Amino acid sequence: GRYLDVAEQAGFARDLCPYHTAMLGCIDAPERDAYVERLFTPPDLIIGSNMPCESESKSFLYAVQKYNVPHYFLDAPLDLGGFEPSQRVVDYYAAGLHGLLSFLGEHGLKGDEGKLSEVVARSRAMARLWADIDELRKLRPTPMRLADAVIAMYLPIYCAGHPDGLAALQTIHAEVEQRAAGGPGMGDDERFRLLLLGIPPYYNLGLLSYPEAKGGVFVKGEVEYVMTGQSDVNMLDPERPLQSLARKVITDLPAPTYAVRLEVLRRTIREFHIDGIVAARKRGCRNFPAGFRLVKDMAAGEFGVPTTVFDLDGLDLREYNDVQAKSNLDAFVEALASR
Question: pTM score, two decimals?
Answer without folding.
Answer: 0.93
